[in-house]
């Protein structure tokens, strides 16, 4: 009954090789350009688990690299379905489960009990019941099971507890059609529970409409259609929970699911993949079977020639129109090519409209290839601002390139190339490039492939994230409109020297948050975007606490989420910062991954910076050691100036 559980059998075999459901999940992520860093947070599994599954996929498919895995999958008729429909369901499942975890934190102080009541025809191995039970537990409920042989189980139902709900699974058959004993039990059952109808939720899993009519005054929820599972489960939560915080989470989730057509009457992913392939080959089969037989039986018939001409002309029109669509796909915003530009949840999102306006003004100053560098320390919000700006653009191609290392850069450009390869001809050309043995030749041809496609689609937007040194990515950096076309480039970097680079047209420095911005972001997260939760005294306490927190989005966000999840005092958090233990650091990292898709804490950023400085000159190691022995607030200025 749970969508992905039903979809999996359609995809478990690809090119005659069987994959597990989790391996299919990871394959879908790979096809959509997700990196090894972002897959764990989406699937709620560890990086080591992802690496193990990746190794299994390579072994099964006989592939040696990520690119060869993509080639292997794209040679299958199921590639498009996995990349589009299956991945869309994967995103929905991820958001659904993360929403349940959020709700569990809200109801943690309550002990809400849900008791499943069902006839013997259901058993503990029923996949629907198992899935439903797991999701209720994920939402913070305690679940009990009562397997009954009939309907006369009133003596076992506790109705006095205010936070106990009885979830009754309706039988497949209409009770009124069964034997006399069960029919009498069912007839007595409904009137006896009428006074406690708020504590009963009936679930219909078999489309038993006749039974539902008898329960029109009760909470009845339809689970008979797999595609509506998420919406049906949300209805259960709305019956049990009454909270503005919960309502907001559920409304946001419902809006997302509805906007992604989860309420549609048909579920395309359930359609046989073989039938889809047959549809794609419909006209060639008409030409291949009908035409020869027509020629053989009516070789001299004018009617047959006319029929043949009609079919041929119709087929040519079809091909021409299809080619026309392909050529215009790049110029359609609806068919835009975009990488995953995720930003923090609304409750943790700092709207910086003033900076967005500055970026707009700078980009409007001239034409051609415009480049802008967002410069600031780690955690200043550079990547989030770049994504926020890019998400507002209507360009046909918007892509984020991870420039943190040469390996990441090559991987990102490879993913962009695959996204740009729209037609069969382009995909074939790309596969040829990927098969090249010489790394340098392969790199050059891949880069040329991307340049050609970008030039054909003007006004693209590229984000080069985490650039260390611009000269190290020079060949990948768009400069010449004659080879790259016209577009915008946003660079995020910690290197202040980039402002002097002649390849950068504009610079925007990401500074500190002012006290009001810090407080607004903190209260948004702490009170789910409603500052009314904070009294005047509480705001004053928060302001005093925030004086001890670095004035950057990363630090304020981590502090707010840590306080919410760990339920500790301001003083305890400040003490944790001063002492800094490994458990505290690991907890911060897990919070960042869960709520922001980020993995570097302030401690990580500083440690990496120090390692980089020491790697350039060992002389700094002694200085850093000395500084670590001093009081951070009383370091002699003469000592720093000397070095």
3D structure, described in words:
The protein is α/β, with parallel strands linked by helices and 643 residues long. The protein has five domains: 3-103, Arc Repressor Mutant, subunit A (Orthogonal Bundle), CATH 1.10.10; 112-224, Rossmann fold, CATH 3.40.50; 274-329; 335-509, P-loop containing nucleotide triphosphate hydrolases (Rossmann fold, 3-Layer(aba) Sandwich); 515-642, no CATH class. Helix 6 packs across helix 7. The termini are far apart.
Concise structural overview:
With 643 residues, the chain is of the alpha/beta class. The chain is built from 28 helices and 13 strands.
Task: Label this structure with key terms.
643 residues, alpha/beta, Arc Repressor Mutant, subunit A, Rossmann fold, 5 domains, 6-stranded parallel beta sheet, 13 strands, 54% helix, globular
Biggest sheet strand order reads 8-10-11-12-9-13
Give the overall average pLDDT.
76
Largest sheet descriptor:
6 strands, parallel
Number of helices: 28
Q: Which strand-content bin applies to the residues?
A: 5-15%
CATH topology label of the largest domain: Rossmann fold
CATH superfamily of the largest domain: P-loop containing nucleotide triphosphate hydrolases
Q: How many structural units, i.e. domains?
A: 5
Net shape? globular
Q: How far is it from the N-terminal to the C-terminal residue, by CA?
A: 67 Å
Briefly note the structural class of the backbone: alpha/beta
């Amino acid at each position: 009954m749970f969508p992905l559980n039903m979809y999996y059998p359609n995809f478990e075999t690809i090119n005659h090789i069987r994959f597990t459901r989790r391996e299919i999940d990871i394959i879908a992520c790979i096809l959509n350009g997700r990196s090894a860093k972002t897959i764990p947070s989406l699937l709620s599994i560890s990086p080591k688990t992802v690496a193990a599954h990746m190794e299994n996929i390579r072994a099964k498919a006989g592939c040696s690299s990520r690119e060869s895995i993509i080639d292997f999958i794209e040679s299958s008729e199921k590639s498009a379905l996995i990349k589009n429909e299956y991945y869309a369901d994967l995103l929905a499942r991820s958001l659904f489960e993360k929403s349940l975890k959020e709700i569990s934190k809200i109801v943690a102080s309550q002990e809400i009990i849900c008791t499943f009541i069902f006839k013997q025809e259901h058993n503990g191995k029923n996949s629907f019941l198992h899935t439903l039970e797991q999701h209720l537990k994920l939402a913070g409920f305690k679940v009990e099971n009562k397997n009954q042989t009939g309907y006369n189980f009133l003596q076992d139902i506790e109705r006095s507890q205010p936070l106990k709900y009885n979830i009754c699974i309706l039988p497949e058959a209409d009770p009124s059609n069964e034997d006399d004993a069960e029919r009498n039990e069912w007839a007595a059952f409904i009137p006896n529970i009428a006074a406690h109808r708020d504590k009963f939720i009936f679930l219909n899993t078999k489309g038993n409409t006749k039974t539902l009519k008898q329960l029109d005054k009760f909470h009845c929820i339809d689970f008979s259609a797999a595609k509506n599972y998420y919406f049906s489960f949300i209805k259960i939560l709305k019956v049990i929970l009454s909270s503005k915080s919960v309502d907001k989470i559920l409304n946001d989730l419902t809006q997302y699911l509805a906007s992604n057509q989860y309420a549609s009457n048909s579920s395309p992913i359930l359609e046989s993949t073989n039938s889809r392939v047959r549809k794609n080959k419909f006209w060639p089969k008409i030409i291949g079977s009908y035409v020869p037989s027509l020629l053989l039986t009516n070789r001299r018939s004018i009617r047959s020639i006319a029929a043949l001409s009609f079919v041929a002309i119709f087929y040519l029109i079809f091909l021409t129109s299809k080619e026309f669509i392909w050529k215009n796909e790049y110029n359609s915003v609806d068919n835009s090519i975009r990488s995953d530009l995720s930003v923090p949840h609304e409750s943790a999102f700092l709207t910086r409209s003033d900076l967005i306006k500055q970026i707009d003004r700078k980009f409007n100053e001239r034409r051609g290839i415009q480049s802008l560098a967002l410069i600031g320390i780690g955690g200043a919000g550079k990547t989030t601002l770049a994504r926020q700006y890019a998400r507002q653009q209507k360009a046909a191609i918007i892509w984020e390139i991870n420039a943190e290392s040469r390996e990441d850069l090559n991987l990102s450009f490879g993913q962009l190339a695959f996204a740009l390869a729209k037609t069969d001809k382009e995909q074939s050309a790309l596969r040829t490039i990927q098969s090249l043995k010489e790394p340098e030749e392969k790199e050059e041809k891949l880069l040329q492939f991307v340049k050609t496609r970008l030039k054909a689609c003007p006004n693209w937007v590229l984000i080069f994230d985490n650039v260390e040194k611009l000269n190290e990515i020079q060949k990948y950096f768009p400069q010449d409109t004659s080879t790259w076309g016209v577009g915008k480039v946003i660079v995020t970097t910690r290197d202040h020297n980039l402002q002097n680079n002649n390849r950068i047209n504009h610079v925007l420095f990401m500074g500190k948050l002012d006290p009001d911005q810090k407080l607004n972001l903190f209260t948004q997260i702490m009170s789910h975007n409603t500052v009314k939760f904070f009294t005047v005294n509480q705001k004053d306490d928060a302001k005093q606490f925030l004086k001890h927190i670095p004035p950057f989005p990363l630090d304020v966000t981590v502090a707010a989420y840590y306080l919410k999840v760990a339920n500790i005092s301001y003083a305890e958090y400040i003490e944790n910062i001063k002492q800094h233990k490994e458990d505290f650091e690991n907890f911060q990292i897990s919070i960042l991954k869960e709520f922001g898709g980020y993995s570097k804490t302030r401690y990580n950023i500083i440690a990496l910076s120090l390692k980089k400085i020491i790697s350039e000159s060992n002389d700094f190691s002694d200085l850093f050691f000395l500084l670590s022995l001093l009081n951070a607030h009383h370091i002699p200025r003469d000592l720093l100036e000397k070095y």
